[in-house]
Specification:
Elements (H helix, E strand, L loop, with lengths): L2 H5 L8 E4 L2 E4 L5 H20 L3 E5 L4 E4 L4 E3 L3 E5 L10 E2 L4 E6 L8 H11 L3 E6 L4 E8 L2 E8 L17 H5 L2
Parallel strand pairs: 4-7, 8-9
Antiparallel strand pairs: 1-2, 1-5, 3-6, 4-5, 6-8, 9-10, 10-11
Length: 177
């Protein structure tokens, strides 16, 4: 399937992605997964709005990383800075500044290392990985197609983000339910 064909399919709330021409559709995420997505959204969106930094969007939102290679992903949350707001229309056409993935015990679509590799290769600046099993939040700084820095936070530690400096996010609040 091409990116153009993918974009002509009917809208759905099920997670789906196009990975190099192959369409993947998954079941809806479980409640634990969605609670973490919600807590992250509630922590990040007010900060972004208050500081007029850009826009935070939850899945399902298509992020077209590569039209020609037919690569369309749906991270759990994305942040696009005000400076790059032009990539947001009906879909996000290009790499968001930040991609956030909530890791479920049963991955829904794709392998994690593959996804992070795509984010790095196509210009996502930072990727957060919220691990449901360990209740840890990893912040990966991405540059030149690779992970250049990794920080793991637990408990009451506030994360340190290069993309959203000062954002008040800590694992205890995200996984505290």
């Amino acid at each position: 399937m091409t990116t153009a064909e993918y974009l002509q399919t009917p809208e759905t709330l099920l997670p789906r992605e196009l990975a190099f021409g192959v369409l993947y559709v998954a079941e809806a995420p479980r409640a634990r997964h969605q609670r973490v997505v919600l807590e992250l959204l509630l922590a990040i969106a007010p900060f972004v709005r208050a500081h007029r930094l850009g826009e935070v969007l939850p899945a399902p939102i298509d992020v077209i990383l590569d039209h020609a290679a037919n690569l369309v992903v749906q991270p759990d949350l994305v942040f696009v800075s005000t400076e790059r707001a032009g990539i947001v229309a009906d879909q996000i056409d290009g790499a968001p500044d930040l991609a956030i993935e909530v890791l479920s015990p049963q991955p829904r679509v794709g392998r994690l290392d593959e996804r992070v590799g795509w984010f790095a290769r196509y210009g996502v600046r930072e990727c957060w990985l919220a691990d449901l099993q360990t209740r840890r939040l990893a912040v990966l700084r991405l540059e030149a197609g690779a992970i250049v820095e990794r920080a793991v936070c637990t408990g009451g530690e506030t994360i340190e983000s290069a993309v959203l400096p000062g954002v008040p996010v800590m694992p205890l609040q995200i996984f505290g339910w």
